[in-house]
Amino acid sequence: MFAHDFVRNAYLAGTFIALACGVTGWFVVLRGQLFAGDALTHVAFVGAIAAAVLGFDERVGLFALTVLVAGGMAVLGRRGQADDAVIGTVFAWILGIGVFLLAVLATSASGGTGISAANTLFGSIYALTPGGSRLAAAIGLAVSLSVLVALRPLLLATLDAELAVVRGVPARALAVAFLVVLAAVTAESTQAVGALLLLGLLAAPAGAAHRLTARPYWGLVLSALIAVAAMWGGLALSYQIASLPPSSAIIGLAGAAYAIAAVATAARARA
Q: What pLDDT is recorded for position 118?
C-alpha cells in the first residue's frame, strides 16, 4: 500500500499528529481539560465553515479561530485555565455561530465549498496533499517538542499551582500557553481525524496511559505510543477495508486500547 502517494502522505501526517495528540492528551487528562478540548474541536469546525463563507483556505479559519478562542477562554478562566462556565458559554456561542454560517453557506454562491469544509467533521487524511502532510507533520512535531521542553514546570503547575508560583514558575502563562498549544493540535488534527472524533484520539490513549502507570515520563511515552499505534493500525485497516473510514478505524483502535487498559488494571487490582 505504500506504493501510493496518498498513503505515504497520510502516514507522514498521521504519525506526528498522533504523537502530538498522545503527548498533549496526557496533560489534558491530568489537568481535567477534556471539556475544553471538546469545545475547541467544534470551534475548529466553525472556523473551517467561516473560511469557506469568506472564500479563504479552510486552514486559515481552523487555526485563526481555534487559537483565538483558546486564548480567550484562558484569559476569562481562573489562573489561565478555562473553567466549565467559560467553556460552556463558548460552546453554546460557537455552535450558534456555526448554525448561522452553515445557513449562509448553503444560500451563497460558494455553497459547493461547504462539501470540503464539511469534511472537517469527519476528517479526510487520505486527501492531504504532499505539502499539507509535511505541514501537518511539522506542526505535530513542534507541538510535541514544545510540551516536552516545558514538561517539568508544566507538570508542577498542574499538580500544585501554589507551589509552582512560590518556586517562580509562571503558572498562569503556562496555562494560557498550554491551551494555545491544544488549539494548534486541534486545528491541525481536525483535518485528519475530524472534529467529531478528535476527542477520542486526545482522551483514549492518554486515559489508557494514566490507568497503566502513575509515572509521568513513562505515562507520556505510553500515551504517545498508543496514539501512534492506533493511527498506523487505523490507516492500514481502512486501506484494506474500503468501506471503513480511516478516522473511524483510528478512533476505534484508540478506544479499544483504553478498554484493554481498563480491564488489565481492574484484573491487577483484584489480583
A: 55
Spatial separation of the C-alpha atoms in residues 13 and 178, rounded to whole Å? 22
SS (H, E, C) the chain: CCCCHHHHHHHHHHHHHHHHHHHHHHHHHHHCCHHHHHHHHHHHHHHHHHHHHHCCCHHHHHHHHHHHHHHHHHHHCECCECCHHHHHHHHHHHHHHHHHHHHHHHCCCCCCHHHHHHHHHHCCHHHCCHHHHHHHHHHHHHHHHHHHHCHHHHHHHHHCHHHHHHCCCCHHHHHHHHHHHHHHHHHHHHHHHCCCCHHHHHHHHHHHHHHHCCCHHHHHHHHHHHHHHHHHHHHHHHHHCCCCCHHHHHHHHHHHHHHHHHHHHHHHHHC
Query: How many domains is the chain partitioned into structurally?
Result: 1
Domain residues for the domain of 163 are 5-270
The CATH number assigned to the domain holding 38 equals 1.10.3470.10
Report the residue count for the chain.
271
pLDDT of residue 81: 65
What pTM was estimated for this model as a whole? 0.84
- Report which of 232, 218, 231, 226 is spatially closest to residue 260, judged by C-alpha positions: 226
Mean pLDDT of each 10-residue bin along the chain, 271 residues long = 90 92 92 82 79 74 80 71 74 80 69 54 78 88 91 88 82 84 83 74 92 91 95 93 87 93 87 77
As given in the structure block, the three cell numbers for residue 133 are 502532510
